[in-house]
Amino acid sequence: MNIHIPTPLRTYTEGKETVSIPGATISATFLQLTATYPELKQHLFTPEGKLRSFVNVYLNDDDIRYLPGKEETTVNDTDELTIIPSIAGGTGRPGARASRRTLCPATC
Amino acid sequence: MLRIQYADYVALRAHGEETYPNECCGVLLGKNSTEGNSAAAINTVHKVVRADNTRTDSAHNRYNIAPQELVKIQRQARGLGLDIVGFYHSHPDHPALWSPTDFAEAHWIGCSYVITSVERGRASITNSFLLTGTTEDDKKFEDEAIEIEVAGTAPHNLKGQA
User: Fold this and answer.
1) Given A4, A96, A100, which is nearest B74 (Cβ)?
2) CA distances (Å), B88 to each of A16, A50, B26, B48, B123, in order?
3) What pTM was computed for the model?
């Protein structure tokens, strides 16, 4: 099936935005993906083999964390996997609309 | 360097004014390249896509883009022959500098993170920071020049200017 690679990880897939990887389940596909592109592994998984917390994986339009079978969900060639790191942030400043004079230091 | 059309630059700043006193957020679609003899990356923006801030519990000081929305935006980019080259958000009544939260939650190495300070509802300073490094362990934000292209005129290089 096709796996869509986010911009930062294309360094490890020879610049490819989409790679075609065979596999009967999501986990089997990931095994083949990281066998084909070994440098991807450390960016997707912890040393314990868990998907990193900020890495989201969607099977078509579904977050695999919420699929009944999770990573053991069976897949077919017409399915698509999308790897998408999270994006979040903010001032993180406690208290709504604190004084504007409270400027953060250079590194905030 | 971040290269962006004037209209897009105005649009992302206006978004921050519209959501004030809450943070806005969005995605920058374009192309990454290098130019001339410089090895420095250039993220050229071709389209600005607004996103919903899902941190409704703390929208005044946090933002989050739902992964499902990101998947759709990445799909949109693919259809346009573009890539996700950056993100933007606003800091209501706060400097246009990255925060520890911004850094901890930044995972798109090679992408530009644009921050606009919105003071009393008016966009003031806009800065861009390039996330560099190779892993979560060595990543860092680097100041990044913003080159604004105005149709029919020479580009303007801005850094920390309204």
Assistant:
1) A4
2) 25, 29, 5, 9, 13
3) 0.90
Q: Which fold has domain A2-85?
A: Ubiquitin-like (UB roll) (3.10.20)
Summarize pLDDT for B83-111 with one digit per residue, the tens: 999 999 999 999 999 999 999 999 999 99
Indicate the domain borders of chain A.
2-85
Note the residue count of chain A: 108
> What is the residue range of B46's domain?
2-158
B73/chain A closest Cα distance in angstroms? 11
Considering CB atoms only, which of B67, B84, B93 is closest to A100?
A: B93
pLDDT in tens, A25-59: 999 999 999 999 999 999 999 999 999 999 999 99
- Asked if ipTM goes beyond 0.85, one says yes
Q: Is the pLDDT of residue A100 over 50?
A: no
pLDDT above 90 covers a percentage of chain B that reads 88
Nearest partner of A36 among A25, A28, A24, judged by Cα:
A28
Would the CB atoms of A63 and B101 count as touching at under 8 Å?
Answer: no
Cβ of residue A47 closer than 8 Å to a chain B Cβ: no
Cβ-Cβ contacts under 8 Å for A46 (sequence gap 6 or more): A52
